[in-house]
Amino acid sequence: MTQTSDGISALLVAAKQAGASDLLLVAGAPPSIYVNTHMELLSREPLAATELNDMIMAFLSGKQRERLSNDRDLDFSLGRAEVGRCRINVHYQRRSLAVAVRFVSSEIPQLEELGLPPLLTAMAELPRGLVLVTGPTGSGKSTTLAALLQQINRQRRAHVITLEDPIEFAFSNDKSIIEQREIGDDSPSFASALRHVVRQKPDVILVGEMRDLETISAALTAAETGHLVLASLHTNTAAQTVERIVDVFDSRRQQQVRVQLGSSLRAIACQTLFPNERDGGMIPAVELMVMTPAIARAIRESNTHLITGMIETGGQQGMQTLDAAITQRFAEGVISRDAAMSKATEGERLERLLDRVDAGHPPTGTSAVTGGAKKLMPAGASRKPWE
Fold first, then answer.
1. Which domains does the chain have, with CATH numbers?
2. pTM
3. N or C: which end of the chain has fewer CB atoms below 10 A?
4. How far apart are CA 195 and CA 205, in angstroms?
5. pLDDT tens for residues 156-169?
6. HSE-up of 116 (CA within 13 Å, CB side)?
């Protein structure tokens, strides 16, 4: 492949045809892709810094080049027939440019297609409150939030405003009216957009990422004042999510924030993705916490360490810890032991759970979330949306 002549567009097409979820372009290294979490080389020819810089600058618009020059980072989305939609980040490293691309499905999946807990469907019916979808980068948070939003769009008349950086899934109005605002183009920041959004008569607000104190504070206020707020965070468990939100604030405000969370938080879904050993593609494991009076009290009284135990005993309310969800996937034969252990929240405990499965003792307490192994959809059904 002659990268200078073909440019970024040709690399995007080649990566898409190879089934990639991500494309990386870094000076001094060959173009690389991720396929089912594994890195592969798209070409063996390293990219020279000057070649890559020229390719990127030719690909960007004048306005984008100006933003990159000022901020040293640029996020934007792109939709083309030959590659579908993708999210692109351009940044500097060692004084040269680099690119990270995430390919996004052009079709917005339904929740049941993703192999997620059925209880998540009920979150789309909530009239108000805060619902958080969390997990590490690349865990499918944006896809889950899009599926939740599409569920609302199909089922109820509502005014939905999304705040995204950048816009990934493009929605068409069904029963709802959906406005999508891109940070940088339609508003200078998440915090600024949230300050004004309550005057725009929304019923549902989607916050692509709660990044800082101002954004988190505004999202909590919006959830308290009668809006359904859907948002994401980079945290691994429900207890960690609560603490991350509280710790953003100074000590004088933390008790007030705990009270706000206790009254407005409705659910936290913490998800991670695994390569599907049986059917290919990717498959999720999800910790799910739904608000109960006991959990609200634990949050208000700074007893966040009790939340995990409450989730473990909350199967009848549809709750499940991440380690229990991972154990269920292992019992179904769709993820390996090594993969399971790599995402453990409590390594020794998860190892004991996996040992019980190997000894012929199936995991218990999972039916409320997954429907049990017999009722769970075939693992392959989640393949397409997560690719």
1. 3-104 (3.30.450.90), 111-386 (3.40.50.300)
2. 0.84
3. N
4. 12
5. 999 999 999 889 89
6. 27
